[in-house]
Amino acid sequence: MAVMLNDPTDPWRREAQTYPVLPQEMVERVRPYGEEQISHEDSIAFTRGDRALDLYLILDGEMEVHAEHPIQGRQYLYSYRGGQFSGEHNMFNDRNTLLSGRLMAGTKFVRVPHERFRALITGEPDIGEMIMRAYILRRAGLVRHLKGGGVLVGHRDHGELLRIQRFLTRNLYPVEVMDVVADAGATQVMQEFSLPLSALIKPDRTVLSRPSDETLAEELGLFEPPEPGAIYDVAVLGAGPSGLASAVYAASEGLRTIVVETLAPGGQAGTSSKIENYLGFPTGISGEALAGRAHIQAQKFGARICVSRSTVSLDCSKKPFAIGLSDGSTVRAKAVVVATGARYRKLDVPNYGRFEGQGIHYAATAMEGNLCSAQEVVIVGGGNSAGQAAVFLSRNARHVNMVMRSGISSTMSDYLVQRIKSSPNITLYETSDITGLRGENGLEGVIWTNRKTGQTYERPATNLFVMIGASPNTDWLEGCVDLDRNGFVETGFSDDREVSSPSTPYRTSKVGVFAVGDVRSGSIKRVASAVGEGSVVVAAIHQYLAGA
Questions:
Q1: Strands of 360-361's sheet, edge to edge?
Q2: How far apart are CA 212 and CA 163, in angstroms?
Q3: Whole-angstrom distance, CA of residue 39 vs CA of residue 215
């Protein structure tokens, strides 16, 4: 095992869970799913970039696992020995594997073919639980220790670099950031690779200069395209909590399921620093962790999740429905669940666009928290998202200023209200509006005015978090289903429109098209309700498909 940090939260220190040894009784139950083999000489089991890997259960001997670093070269990470199994997060999908595995001469093992892997997971639930937990922790360890991914070079607070880092981090891809200002070796690396700013060096040492999200997903093997010619039982458009819940329940109940997501699993909830009022997590759970678990759960049952593609059209004139994606391709499905959520609202302030990505943020995750360490920040908004961000950022920021158009929202959870009001590191400014932004290359100051008193405040804040709600992401639906006056999808239509359709609160005006979560008119904007809607709608989909 590689040297580990002395930190009990480090997945690499939780060896019993991250690298468990199966007892002999479990080993015997794995055997029927594969074939016992022996490596007579040192041999490659899998190589970085391979897809659809087999699982190796080591009986005797050793498999070494290595990562490729674009600057430092090959790195030994750890070894699997008797009773241990290979693999990590990518075993549940068709993405590129991040690591390479080498079998030592004389190693005996059971090799479970990729097409039998899910049969093992579902057929032996206790073994499957152990494997799933290990895979989640192994990927978390790779992300934490920045192993198996690329190196991103540029200005740490530059909008382009933050966009790339955010996309990779939220898709659980390890990325090491070299800041040309703070990191002594960054300039040398830029010269060696002839890099522009905001460039990603892949493990094979090729360079992606200011890549789009689609390019990143393609080049790094994060994108799983729809299967050619496939007609899916259900297409879930959006991978927030409601979309992921629909995917889990649909796939687990035997429906051929595809999920299309623009950025990363989790939606806006995936950016929450900590959700403390979600049932079953008394100590709270981050949005990223919740999304990651739901993501792998959907894949466990066979759902295909395509990230980095947006839905741009829905042809309701024929069935199966034709869903147009941003890359020009088309997905065909018998039923559609619209779970595209909403877009962040922006402030109407001069120079606002100039500072987006250069100090203006719409989420407060660990990545943004690191940017704000020992700095003064401003948060705009009075709802739960703003409250969670204020509590989270107040731990490391020098001071947090909360600016609210009226006051703390009546819908904000009381535990957040009490923490905010009792925190000496958070100051509330009610009935106030942001009136100015100052800075040259990036945000340097934020100005706001109290509407009642006329008093103006200016603070030297380099990070502004805008959390003033969102507008529905439904432009592409115009003409297919009914929308309310604010653009949210109207639901709850009854059978009288088309006889074959069952009544459901989530049915749109078009039979076979359903809407759940924040995009639905009248929905309650909470993670728990979104998950509930996403799971319940699957019963209606079954009824619709049975009568279609």
A1: 360-361, 463-466, 376-380, 399-403, 426-429
A2: 9
A3: 38
Residue 514 carries which side chain, given as an amino acid letter? F
* Residue 68: count of CB within 10 angstroms of its CB: 22
Please give the Cα distance from 80 to 497 (Å, whole number): 60
Give the residue ranges of the chain where pLDDT is below 70: 1-6, 495-503
Task: With beta carbons less than 8 A apart as the criterion, state whether 234 and 301 touch.
Answer: no
pLDDT computed for residue 440 by the predictor: 87
pLDDT tens-digit readout, 238-251: 999 999 999 999 99
Show the DSSP H helices in 330-413 as ranges.
Answer: 352-355, 366-371, 384-393
Convert the pLDDT of each residue in 45-89 to its tens digit: 999 999 999 999 999 999 999 999 999 999 999 999 999 999 999
Backbone CA torsion sign across 42, 43, 45, 50: positive
Residue given tokens 């006889």 in the structure block: 499
Distance between start and end Cα atoms, the chain = 55
Q: Is 547 exposed, middle or buried (0-12, 13-18, 19+ CB in 10 A)?
A: exposed
- Evaluate the omega torsion of the peptide bond into residue 320 and state whether it is cis, within 30 degrees of 0: yes
